[in-house]
């Protein structure tokens, strides 16, 4: 039609080839959302598990996601360097991922909150960032996990002070201002008898998702050529499944154990 | 932290100032989704109404959306030229809109399909396109409504031939190949006794959403200064609400009637 | 060849359709360049005329440039909204314009500075900015002309104080700090007997270039069909030539006089 | 001023960090330019040397250019991965490089063509392309050198056939259509007694520029502390200079010899 010229106002937004493509989403105004739904403070296990469930779903839809990392109300998905998913179009990548995640969040809500009504549909923002080198990518993931640690240590102290220590939120904020990690660890230990390092890894480390090959044994029924009898044979199949771990990804160990995530051969 | 440098790999994606910002989303693989959920063919009223419901929700969240237009599995939202929502960042605009829409779709599903289970969470792609002039914007919207018309006329014929005419899908496709609008109108009329122009406007025109000021009368209860008695007064309040219409937006009439959509004074 | 894949790392940079495309260049480190070549202060007429000469050359090469504006070491070229020059590719536009300008600068140097050796080749930066509306474009040009005025008034005072008033550069700077336009006009008048408004328009207004149709009369010699005699006829031809003016382009007058610059019909 | 808002229509165009930045320029319509200036065919040594001279000048101005490669009417400049020149702004990089190159071309013309008048100022287009990995960068440079080889072999045959073989340009084109490299080598050898591999490397390999540290010995004159006598001492200074070579850069040898070009330590 004579209106079709308007198509040409669209711009190309292909990601630079040969770069890692990171798609990061983050809950919109989850400060309010977590209040409205009375999430436990500082960490709500069900809420985090719901996030993880959605992320696993996204990974299964987009098999070029080689690793994903989540914490709090955010998730980062890393598409492998060579992906041609959506011809590497940034808009397509971020909107497909984020809308699928958001829809899954509502879809799976009741599995994680069987006794809590979802009050309103949540929104998430999302962005694409590309990283040229493996080191840049690992630094990106380290940045997110360090963020998880810093926030979690702070929030753990803050809510202990408020919920058990009798501090007002203002006072708690004041008390923590300018303190170092060591101070916060000490505070938890001396005042609340908590060894921070013994808190659940889900809270302290966040969640990392990646693919693992598993062998599945299954029974296959067939008719042999020369007989009428139905025979049964055990067959071994290799499947790629998403693994969920709460583990350090800043150090080298994780990456040495799983070199294939960065597209390297197992040594 | 020493990892924070990775932030600088993000790119700015502000939309050009003084341009209309169109955010268009489209259901991912809704061919399959509508099959899986047995949508009526060619148009499923409930499915369309669900789309509209989500779009109204989005408009209420983003009041800088001055008009929206939907048909089939897609919706276009037009942010006013001067909007500073998300500092006009394209990624933020498209991902917030699309994720809210997707979440609403699942959230509201059961209202429109009380007897049908949602089988899996749907995804939507989304893009941002900017248009410098009012004419370009109107041409954009005309393009979408013309698309609605063309597809709907075709689909109406196609499914009539298949569901009532005894044609296979291949035969129906063959029969319609190369036909003009007039041929299709004629076919519907002569073979199926259908006057195309009498089909529901929802199907033929799609849906346009825009803001309208309405006067609301409400009762206000108050204590007067000098008495203890509770008094009651009728107050008139002007509220902005989203109106839903199925109407031609290609011609001038609609735009003359609602100049404020394009930011012009009512004459 | 097997290396050709590297082409795909190039990105598209088409300018948004239906927008004015402004290409602005600016001399690199002309502070030093004008010192090295002992340009008169604050304005060197020959230097400005050389800039204008190059700009006229550029306009003649790119006939989609509808208007250009220059001052100091900079020039802005405005491509008409609908131009398809270089498919509107921003890189092509800015680099072709700027390299042609720079080459012309050296090529024509000796015409404007017959007695001065060019010491080294100058560089210019250049950028593309797009403007959606006529108003935005006029504001852009007004911005540059206002800049010309402000700088020129300041520089005129500054160099009067230094070259004739016996001030050091520091003292002159100090004296002018915080003064208004009116103060500066007053200073020039009272201290140096100069009426600022009588200074050359080239300095105060900069230079605007645009196209004008001129009738040219020329003699055409031809042999008539039926005779051997060579006859001569006066022919009138309309040519499009670049006009150079030093005039206000902030007010409406200029634009009313030349509506065709913005693509409007003469009224 | 109230017009300054127009600045905000400029867009950011920073190159992705940690990537090689290639700036490639190419003569505009040098088909015509080389005809107008009667360049020898297929290669004009003076013209190529002028190009190289300009490129060396550019490299000396932008010391973050680690390597440059030129052939025919084009030159590629590679800025090191970590450069912060112009904050990595693509427009600034390409326009500064290309305008300096173009100005140098005119500035230095007469040194290379003492007996030929420059007819008109040449223009060059220019673009920025970024490459994430060393391999991509080497492939880019290989692509250009392979292009040099292919064109040069073809052009050598073509002009031999035309200038010495008595072919028309059409006939020569026809004769070469579909031939392989080996065919062309053979043709040159059998018909024109030319061993292609003995032609000047400047023509066959193009030109590569890179930095090399050289020791300079110079005499320093000074007064010793305790005597009035002027003494003289030989001092050794290390300077970085641009080296010009016509050599293969597709194979590994060049890169093993000069690992510092790609920012690696000499082994
Ligand atoms: N109580 C509770 N709150 C949580 C949990 N996970 C996330 N949140 C809340 C705490 C933070 O206020 C918020 C995440 O911080 P953000 O920086 O993403 O801010 P927010 O989402 O409010 O705003 P945004 O729209 O992202 O700018 O979500 C949880 O497990 N329990
Ligand atoms: N039966 C039925 N199908 C519908 C209705 N609305 C939309 N659809 C289906 C018909 C089309 O196959 C599809 C929309 O066409 P699209 O061009 O968006 O293709 P689709 O979503 O399959 O693929 P995409 O991921 O958008 O490229 O949705 C409806 O009301 N009833
Ligand atoms: N003496 C003299 N100087 C001039 C004339 N026109 C321009 N200039 C000098 C004065 C300024 O220092 C300079 C233009 O200012 P810019 O803001 O463009 O700075 P500059 O080119 O030095 O640095 P840049 O590389 O553009 O950031 O050029 C002139 O006619 N006479
Ligand atoms: N005779 C002669 N011609 C040369 C020499 N170096 C380059 N040229 C000419 C031959 C080609 O026609 C032209 C370079 O090819 P291009 O693909 O860059 O085309 P051209 O510059 O004509 O058009 P463009 O504006 O770049 O698209 O320059 C030379 O040394 N001698
Ligand atoms: O999806 P289509 O085929 O209707 O057309 P499009 O949306 O313009 O194409 P794309 O989704 O690939 O941008
Ligand atoms: O949202 P913040 O404040 O955690 O930081 P950010 O996500 O980098 O900022 P933005 O969402 O504005 O890009
Ligand atoms: O100019 P060409 O034809 O050698 O090829 P290109 O430079 O890749 O094309 P363009 O100049 O149009 O980007
Ligand atoms: O160069 P300036 O300082 O006059 O201002 P600008 O040109 O807007 O700045 P930049 O050259 O850095 O874009
Ligand atoms: Mg954020
Ligand atoms: Mg959030
Ligand atoms: Mg967050
Ligand atoms: Mg599509
Ligand atoms: Mg669809
Ligand atoms: Mg669709
Ligand atoms: Mg500048
Ligand atoms: Mg300057
Ligand atoms: Mg300047
Ligand atoms: Mg080219
Ligand atoms: Mg060329
Ligand atoms: Mg070339």
In short:
The structure is a homotetramer of 267-residue chains. With 267 residues, the first copy, chain A, is α+β, with helices and mostly antiparallel strands.
Describe the structure.
The structure is a homotetramer of 267-residue chains. Chain A has a domain at 11-142: tRNA(His) guanylyltransferase (Thg1) (Alpha-Beta Plaits), CATH 3.30.70. The termini of chain A are far apart. Chain A is globular, with a radius of gyration of 23 Å. The model of chain A has no long low-confidence stretch (mean pLDDT 96). Chain A has a six-stranded antiparallel β-sheet, sandwiched between helices. Chain A has helices at 30-36, 45-61, 90-112, 134-163, 169-176, 181-192, 201-205, 253-257; strands at 20-27, 65-71, 74-79, 124-131, 207-223, 230-245. With 267 residues, chain A is of the alpha+beta class. At the A-B interface, helix 3, strand 4 and helix 4 of A face helix 3, strand 4 and helix 4 of B. The site of one magnesium ion has 4 residues of chain C, from loops.
């Amino acid at each position: 039609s004579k209106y079709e010229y308007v198509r040409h106002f669209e711009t190309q937004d292909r990601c630079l080839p040969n770069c890692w493509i990171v798609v990061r989403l983050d809950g919109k105004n989850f400060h309010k959302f977590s209040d409205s739904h009375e999430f436990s403070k500082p960490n709500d296990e069900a809420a985090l598990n719901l996030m993880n469930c959605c992320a696993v779903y996204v990974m299964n839809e987009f098999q070029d996601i080689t690793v994903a990392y989540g914490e709090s109300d955010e998730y980062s998905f890393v598409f492998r360097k060579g992906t041609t998913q959506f011809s590497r179009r940034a808009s397509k990548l971020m909107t497909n991922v984020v809308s699928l995640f958001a829809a899954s969040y509502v879809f799976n809500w009741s599995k994680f909150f069987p006794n809590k009504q979802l009050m309103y549909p949540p929104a998430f923002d999302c962005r694409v960032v590309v990283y040229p080198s493996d080191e840049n990518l690992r630094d990106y993931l380290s940045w997110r996990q360090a963020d998880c640690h810093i926030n979690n240590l702070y929030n753990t102290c803050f809510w202990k002070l408020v919920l058990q220590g009798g501090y007002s939120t203002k006072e708690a904020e004041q008390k923590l201002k300018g303190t170092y990690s060591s101070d916060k660890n000490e505070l938890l230990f001396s005042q609340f008898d908590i060894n921070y390092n013994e808190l659940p890894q889900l809270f302290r480390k966040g969640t990392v998702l990646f693919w693992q090959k598993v062998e599945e044994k299954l029974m296959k029924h067939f008719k042999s050529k020369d007989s009428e009898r139905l025979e049964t044979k055990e067959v071994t199949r290799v499947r790629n499944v998403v693994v969920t771990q709460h583990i350090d990804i800043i150090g080298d160990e994780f990456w040495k154990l799983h070199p294939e995530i960065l597209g390297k051969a197992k040594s």
